[in-house]
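for the recovery benchmark. tokens below, seq after
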């Protein structure tokens, strides 16, 4: 791809930036940036290329990625994750065409790897002396891995005591410098955004438009795996970069002539951290940040999502909805998906399934529509929460009769019945 093929554009004032001078946010109005392509030219290019023989994954779509010199791609073979047809869970919920896009299958166990392969490749291209992010866990573990692969020093800032242990172990093992702040994610992000320029560190939170570019490839993959876009996509929302990325991906696939429809975008937040859902339900143009966000799904324990404007636009443009779910609903959905389909996802990811259950009950989802739920991170990221949610403690000294109930083997619905 050459420089003229894309540029960054402010989503607020429309100011344009050449790829070599792209700040994180607009110099003029401070709003977020978005990478724009000459889609007609790319469509023409794709029609002459044998790109469909490339394997499924982020770099299959290199014509739609903003990397100018593809000689030094920092990759761990991200993307190409499975799309499972969940017949048993679908049967239980009264849905014929329920699919799960399982992003926990990425190399560090979350969707963040799609963004990091592009973001860290760009960091290497511009000669960044270090990379940094604030994180509820997965961004930190993914950045740490890609920085290690690129040979760039990495500093991650996390809310002290509030990230899942698997994620912390990963960031440490990959050799990142881990800084815990006494505060929440929103405060950690503010600190990193204020200090990265001064320190000369390259910022890899999703405010960085290169991250979004990598993440949008999951939408491309879904279109190809299903043969067309789903009617409805349900996705957990925290800092709101991923839902924005998917919507951009679905729109671009249409613009380059590779699909003919657009899905409805449904964003799910936890009740205790739901500023976007609140704004959606109030028909408000802006969010009101949640000061002390709280949820068992620590990945999405975010009160002031940086990409709220892109997310609200995605939901409204696509005629979708935003809904919130309780911690109990999240933990129930996590178990259901594991036990009915063999997919162990982290609590934040199960929010998409919990949201589906709630919206199906409300009559918002039709039994015949094709629904894709995105599960964003692997269950092993947060073993503590999983164990707490499944553990059955038996008191010593109880009689065999008293124990009989605990020892009953749960009945399973055979797959062939569904
Ligand atoms: C499993 O790691 O924000 O709405 O700092 O780890 O794009 O923020 C994680 C977010 C959903 C929400 N599911 O995605 C971080 C971080 C999982 C996540 C989200 C996250 P966005």
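predicted aa per position
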């Amino acid at each position: 791809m050459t420089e003229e093929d894309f540029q960054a554009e402010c989503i607020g004032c429309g100011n344009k930036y050449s790829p070599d001078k792209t700040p994180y946010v607009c110099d003029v109005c401070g709003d977020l940036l978005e990478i724009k392509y000459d889609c007609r030219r790319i469509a023409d290019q794709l029609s002459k290329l044998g790109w469909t023989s490339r394997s499924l994954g982020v770099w299959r779509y290199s014509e739609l990625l903003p990397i100018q010199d593809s000689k030094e791609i920092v990759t761990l073979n991200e993307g190409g994750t499975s799309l499972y047809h969940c017949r048993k869970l679908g049967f239980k919920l009264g849905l014929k065409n329920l699919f799960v896009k399982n992003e926990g299958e990425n190399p560090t166990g979350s969707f963040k790897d799609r963004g990091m392969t592009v973001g860290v490749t760009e960091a290497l291209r511009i000669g960044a002396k270090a990379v940094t992010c604030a994180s509820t866990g997965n961004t930190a573990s993914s950045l740490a891995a890609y920085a290690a692969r690129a040979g760039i020093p990495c500093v991650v800032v996390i809310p002290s005591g509030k990230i899942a242990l698997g994620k912390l172990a990963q960031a440490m093992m990959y050799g990142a410098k881990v800084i815990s702040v006494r505060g929440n994610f929103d405060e950690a992000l503010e600190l990193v955004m204020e200090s990265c320029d001064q320190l000369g560190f390259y910022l890899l939170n999703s405010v960085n438009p290169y991250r979004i570019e990598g993440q949008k490839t999951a939408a491309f993959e879904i279109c190809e795996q299903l043969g067309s876009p789903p009617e409805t996509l349900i996705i957990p929302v925290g800092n709101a970069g991923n839902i924005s990325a998917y919507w951009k991906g679905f729109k671009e696939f249409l613009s380059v002539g590779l699909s003919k429809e657009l899905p409805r975008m449904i964003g799910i937040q936890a009740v205790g951290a739901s500023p976007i859902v609140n704004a959606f339900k109030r028909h408000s143009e802006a969010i009101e940040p949640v000061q002390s966000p709280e949820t068992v799904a620590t990945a999405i324990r975010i009160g002031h999502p940086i990409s709220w404007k892109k997310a609200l636009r995605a939901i409204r443009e696509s005629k979708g909805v935003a809904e919130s779910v309780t911690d109990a609903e999240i933990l129930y959905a996590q178990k259901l998906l594991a036990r009915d389909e063999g997919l162990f996802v982290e609590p934040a990811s199960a929010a998409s399934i919990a949201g589906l259950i709630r919206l199906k009950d409300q009559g918002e989802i039709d039994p015949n529509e094709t629904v894709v739920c995105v599960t964003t991170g692997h269950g092993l990221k947060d073993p503590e929460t999983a164990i707490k949610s499944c553990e059955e403690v038996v008191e010593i000294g109880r009689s065999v009769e008293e124990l009989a109930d605990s020892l009953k083997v749960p009945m399973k619905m055979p797959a062939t019945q569904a």
